[in-house]
Amino acid sequence: MASPPTSEPVIELRGVEKHYQMGDTLVKALQGVDLKIFPGDYISILGPSGCGKSTMLNILGCLDQPSVGQYLLDGLDVSKLSDDDLSQVRGKKLGFIFQSYNLIQQLTVVENIEVPLYYQGVSEKESREIAVELATRVGLGKRLDHRPTELSGGQQQRVAIARALSNNPSVILADEATGNLDSKSGGDILEIFDRLNAEGKTLILITHDEAMSQRTSRTIRLKDGEIASDRRREEKVP
Amino acid sequence: MIQHSLLREFSLFRLKRSVLLGIKSLWMHKLRSLLTAMGIVFGVCSVIAMLAIGEGASHEAQQQIKELGSQNVILRSVKATDATTAGEQERSLILEYGLTYRDIAQIQATVPGVLVTIPAREVKDFIWNESRSIDSSTLGTVPWFPEMRNRSVVRGRFFTEIEMNTRAPVCILSKSLARHLFPLSEPIGDTVRIQSSYFRVIGVIADDPATASAESEDKNGRADPNQGAGMEMLIPISTLEDHFGEVLFKYRSGSFEAEKVELHEVTVRIDEPESVMPASQAIRHLLERNHKKVDYEMIVPLDLLRRAERTKQIFNIVLGSIAAISLLVGGIGIMNIMLATVTERTREIGIRRALGAKKKDIVVQFLIETVMLSGAGGVIGVALGLAIPLVITHFAEMVTIIEFWAPALAFSISVITGVLFGIYPAFRAAGMNPVEALRHE
Fold it and tell me: Residue ranges of the domains in chain B?
C-alpha cells in the first residue's frame, strides 16, 4: 500500500461499487473500492480493457454515481447529489482530458478553453483573459482564433489541457490522453503533465500503457473491478 | 443565494453568448439552416400577403357601402315580379307600382329617429346632346340629395331650393354621363334634351357608387353597350313632374309602355347609427302593410356593412387556418432538423455536460437555436410579406392594406412556433446521459 501523506485527501472512495444490469445478469464493474487521493498526487490508473477503468473514470469524474458506497470530493459527498449539483461539481472541481480531445468543432481555440468558465458564469472579459493566458502557456498563443480542424492532434490535446485548467480544478482526469498521438506529440503532452504536477496539480491518468507508471509517482492497478495494487514510488526517476 | 444564481442564469451576458453560439452553430450548416427556415418564411409571408389583399378587397367594398351613407335606408320602387298579381291589375294599360308619397309621409310621421327623407322620381329615356345620345336614367330629387348620399359635386353646383320651387329646367350630370355626352367640350352652361324638354347643365356630380359597382358586376350580361355604369342625370323633382307628369310613357321596340310610379327612390336619413336597424325594421313593417306585393326594395347600407364585416371575419378565419397549417408544416420541418442536429451533436452535448453544463443550459442552448432559426425565417417572411402586396398593387392595381399588427402577429407566431417545436428536441438533448453522449461516435 502507498504510504499516506499527512494532509486531508482530495478524493476518498469508501466501499464503492458499480453495478450494471445486462439482460438477466448483474455485472459488477467495480466492487469494494477504497481509495484516497491526496493533493499533489500524480497517479496512473492501469489495467487491461474490461477491468473497470472507464467506470472508475466516470465515477471519479462525477459523470456517473456509484451503486453502493461513498465518494467524497474535497470532503463533499457527491454520491447522492442531484444531476444539477453534479454538473456544478464537474464544472468547478474537475478538469477532463479525453483521448479524442473532444473539442467543440464550431468554436475557436480561445472559445473552447472558455467553455467551462461560461458555465461557471465568469464574465466575458475575465474568461477571455484566462483563456488567452492558458493558450499561451500550452504554446498556442499564436493560434487563438483557429478552429480545431486547423490544428494537429498534439495541438488539439494542448487546447484540451488548457480547457481542463481554465476553472482551476482540484483534480485533472486524463483518459488515455496520449492514445491518439504519435510518440513525439505524446511525449510533449506528458511533459506538460509533469510540469503541472510539479506546480502542485493533482493528476489522474487513466491508461493501459505500462510505460506511464514509470512517470507517475503512484500507480494503481485495476483487475476485475477491484484494486489489485496501489504503489507509491518514494522518489521519482529524473 | 438562490436569487443570486437565478440572476446569473438569466443575465443578458449569458443570453448574448448563447445567441452568438447559436449563430455559429447554425452558420456551420448554412444551406440546411436556410432550407429549414424556408418553411417559416413562406408561412409568415403568405399570412401577411393574404391578409393585405383580403384587407384591401374588403376595405374597398366597405368604402363603397359607406359612400351610400351608413345612416341611410334606401328604398327603391321595383316592378313586382309576381305574375298573378300583374294579371289582377284590372287589365289596365298603365302599370302602377312602387313607393308613394303616402309611404314617406307615414315613415316621416311614425318611425322614430327619421331626420329627413329624400324622395326621387326617375325617368328612363334617351338623353341627347345634339347628335350624341344615351339611354340613361334621369332622377328628380331634392337639393340636399348630394349631402345625404355622400355624393360630391365635382364641377359647377347642385340645384337650389329656389330652383326646385320654381321648377327650373336645370340638370346635373354624373361624371361618366358628362364624359359620354360632352367628350370634348365643357358641359356646364350647355343644354341637354330629353324628349322635347331642354335642361341647362349647371354641375357635374360623382358617379353613384352603388350603381357603378352593381352595373359593372353584370357587365357581361348586358346587351346594350351604350348604357354605361353610373350614368345618370339629376334634376329638381318638381321639374320632373312638370315635364313628364305622373304617368311615364316610353316608346320602345314598337310598343308603348306606360308606368305610373309616384316615387322611384326614397332615401331615409336616420339620426343615430344605433337606431338604423330598428328604424329599418319599422319601415319594412310599414311598407309590408301598405303594399300587397313587394314592389319595392330596401337597401340598408349599415346592414350591408355588417354583412361585409362578417364576410371579412369568415375570410380571416379561413386565412388563419391556412396560416396555422403552413406554420405547422414549417414547425414540423424545424423540429425534424433540430432532432437530427441533436443526434449529430450528441458528443458536443456530452462534452458540455462534462465541463459543467446543467440540463437547463443544454435546453436553453438548443431552444435559442430553434427560435433563432424560426425568428430568422419570420424576419425574412415579414420582409417578403411586405414586398408582395406592393408588387401586387403596382402590377395588378389592386388595393392592398397592411395592418400594422399583421407583420407583428406573423413574426410572433413564427417565434412561438420555434419555441413549441424546439421544446422536444431541446429536452431530448438535455436528457442524454453524459457518459453515453461522450462515447457517441
Answer: 13-63+308-439, 79-294
